């Protein structure tokens, strides 16, 4: 499939939502005092784990206290 | 009533600060959009990344718009419900552990409005998020697959909201009654595992709250039995009210367990 034939207008919302999720997760990671496990590891998971990464961070990584 | 609005504001501020107000609706929105898209472009995706031998021919079944909406719901039933149960398991239990509860419990608050403030915040986030997600899914389905009967769609959405109310009350109740860890286990068992059990053994009965998502799909397709559906809805709503009242009772009884 070549570059032009990809329906960017349809896919764009997904990309934007993913970016928002990643940015929010990173902001949260910077603000919280401590996480379950090392912080740098969570940064890697959030950035590289595209769709699931931020979700896993919010559920598991965040220490809700 | 002023009591309630004060508690609600506190709850709202907390959920804004931990970003739940933002990321939970976004997760539902993300799955609502990606489900119709991946289903529509599956042949192209497989052709470009599937590493198929030359000349492989796939017979893809024609998917109806109703089936796409149902597959969105089945995503919500797994990942969405995990997010809701694990994300909110600490909503009451956490306050007891962290000591926030002692700040609240010394005031003459009614436990009814305490639980209701949490209920209202959860309803806003979870049900609001799911509605946004399903509407986005409907929009994409409309573009890619075709129109859905709008009356049937609203019946489907209403039924699914009743199910979400049941899930929320289970989470609220277990969070009031147990500690965070036990509460998340209990709510996952009663939301996710109970569905599997109901699907395996459920041919013997037709009235159960865990059958509501299935009934929602039947309404969307336009063929469903009225009697078991009405009874299931009634039982679900009654069970939700009982669970919420129980949450108020346990929130009051567990005051002594709060860490000072």
From TrEMBL, chain A:
Main localisation: membrane
TM spans (from-to): 6-28, 40-60
Domain spans labelled Cardiolipin synthase N-terminal: 20-62
Membrane topology: Multi-pass membrane protein
Entry keyword annotation includes Transmembrane helix: yes
Cell location: Cell membrane
Alphabetical keyword list: Cell membrane, Membrane, Transmembrane, Transmembrane helix
GO cellular component term, pick one: plasma membrane
Name recorded for this polypeptide: PLDc_N domain-containing protein
Gene source species: Psychrobacillus vulpis
Automatic annotation (TrEMBL), chain B:
Ranges that cross the membrane: 21-42, 73-93, 119-140, 152-173, 185-207, 229-251
Name the UniProt record assigns to this protein: ABC transporter permease
One Pfam family of this chain: ABC2_membrane_2
Single GO cellular component term: plasma membrane
Keywords attached to this entry: Membrane, Transmembrane, Transmembrane helix
Organism the protein comes from: Psychrobacillus vulpis
One GO molecular-function entry: ABC-type transporter activity
Residues in the signal sequence: none
